[in-house]
Amino acid sequence: MAGDKLNSTEYDKISPDSEEDLMPKKAGHHKFHMPKSCTNSAEDLNCDIKNQVYSERLEQLKNEIEKLTIPDLQINSEDLFDQHCDPANPVQIKFNDISAAAYRIRGGVEITPCTRSHMSSITGMEIFFKKDFLQYTGSFKERGARYALLSLSKEQKACGVIAASAGNHAQALCYHGKMLKIPVVVVMPKIAPIMKISNCRSYGAIVIVEGTSMLEAKNFALKLSKMLNIMYINGYDHPNILAGQGTMALEILEQVPDVDAIVIPTGGAGLLAGVAVAAKALKPDIMIIAAESDRCAGFYNSMANGEPTLTFSDPTLADGLAVSLVGVNAFASAKNLVDKCVCVQEEYIAIAILRLLELEKAVVEGAGACGFAAVLQGLLPELKNKKVVIPLCGGNIDTTILGRVLERALAADGRLIKLWVTISDRPGSLAEFTKLVSAFGASIKDIAHERAWLKSDVFSVQVQAVLEVENSEKAKEIEEFLIKKYEKVIMGPYGINKQ
Ligand SMILES: Cc1ncc(COP(=O)(O)O)c(C=O)c1O
To answer: Is 416 helix (H, G, I), strand (E, B) or coil?
Structure first.
């Protein structure tokens, strides 16, 4: 069965009612040959047969992909058209779409807690964190992915789907594809975190690592979707994805009915659109705030220009938000409902990750921490004394990256400082230096001597030290003390205000 091909006339006999939902048919495109045991409905099959059909189709897709040659994969402009995200005909999702999604995905994704935070006292607002990083694959993306998969026609379910994603959408789609026995192909760019790539593989999906950027991965996936005749599911713009993401707002309004504002991390704007449509329908006076990284301010620029606007994106800790062009449906759905849009600096995203880990005991990735980072950066003064819900919408951060982020956050927070002090080379001088700094409660993390490349007298030595201190005030006290005591003191930048 695996290599068989049907011509389109034969395929239509099998699925006469599914024309509209099928991928555009092009001359010469091969179609998935439904196995004999699957000519009725996939839902009617018992579990074993369903599993077998699913595995066979995955094998068939693998074989078809392996057979593709470089000329086959040449990308033309019409290959990049996605019928579900047509800039000429953007779709505005409605509240009914979101309530339908909530009904269909119930039981398949977690209803995550939305609890009052320890951070309320330090921020001057009553903060509630919606903990969607507790979803099985670690992000809110499961909401849209499951709904999009459940909404496919039976033929589309049997054929499988394809997506491009740097991580969370891919993981969500792969996992729910496996649960629902719908074959999934994901194209992930080379910059995707290793953990996310291996998770997708562990869910049994076909994972292709291709492209140096998200845009290249997406273009490749769109081309493949046409070659394989399977549906492309845009992770931030397919209307069913937006509807699924909106289910988060229904939960929020049930959990914190008198919420004043929701601050939403924004990349392609799918979550923003879904949450804004649902929340404003139920509570028109609620404030909806978009928070994005200032290294990829695509939504901000699009709002300024009144249309989705291609925006250059620099590498950011919030990798999930690095989308160069917001979704056309997402923008159309959200643009009139968003009250404010803020762009967050990298240092505050790092500090937000640190605070959430230390005070909230929550491991949150950069994208998921962006809303809280906006509060820490002081970008939302109008929310003082208000009830604010902030989705912590993803927790997928590589352990090695987490280590590096925490070091940067400690430095930005003024709790890790680096200094160079020229001291005497006589016995006891280094001991005296360490004693002096330890009197401030500083812990020495690293220390080194420099003798050769100095211009001072030969009886001097330069000490380079990295110290961990209680806070930036303590760092300042140490700096002032050392300047009085030693002739030459150089402090590395510490604390955000010094950078
Ligand atoms: C953790 C996390 N938060 C927020 C977003 C932003 O979602 P959207 O692209 O729908 O704006 C993403 C997107 O991947 C994400 O992974």
So the answer is: strand
Q: Atom of ligand 1 at shortest distance to CA of 271?
A: 10
> What mean pLDDT is predicted for residues 442-470?
89
C-alpha–C-alpha distance, residues 149 and 241, integer Å: 9
Tell me the pLDDT tens digit for each residue of 65-87: 999 988 888 889 899 999 999 99
Q: Whose CA is nearest to atom 12 of ligand 1?
A: 320
pTM above 0.70, yes or no: yes
| CATH tag for 8-75+154-232 (out of 3.90.1150.10, 3.90.180.10, 3.40.640.10, 3.40.50.1100) | 3.40.50.1100
- Ligand 1 centroid from CA 236, angstroms: 8
The residue whose C-alpha atom lies closest to atom 13 belonging to ligand 1 is 320
Nearest CA owner, ligand 1 atom 16:
320
Pairing mode of beta strands 184-188, 161-164: parallel
Q: Which CATH number fits domain 95-139+239-409: 3.40.50.12780, 3.40.50.1100, 3.40.50.300, 3.10.580.10?
A: 3.40.50.1100
In CATH terms, is domain 414-498 a member of 3.30.830.10? no
**8-75+154-232 shares its CATH topology with 95-139+239-409:** yes
Q: What is the mean pLDDT of the chain?
A: 89
- Among 417, 408, 412, residue whose Cα is nearest residue 478: 417
Cα(133)–Cα(377) distance, integer angstroms: 22
Sign (positive/negative) of CA torsion 403, 352, 496, 296?
positive
- Chain Cα centroid distance, residue 88: 27
Instruction: Say how many Å lie between the CA of residue 393 and the centre of ligand 1.
Output: 7
- On whether the CB atoms of residues 181 and 47 are closer than 8 A, the answer is no
Q: What is the pLDDT of residues 137-151, one digit of tens each?
A: 999 999 999 999 999
- CA-CA distance, 80 to 27, in Å (whole number)? 17
Q: Which residues contact 462 (CB under 8 A, 6 or more apart)?
A: 420, 421, 422, 423, 449, 450, 451, 454, 456, 488
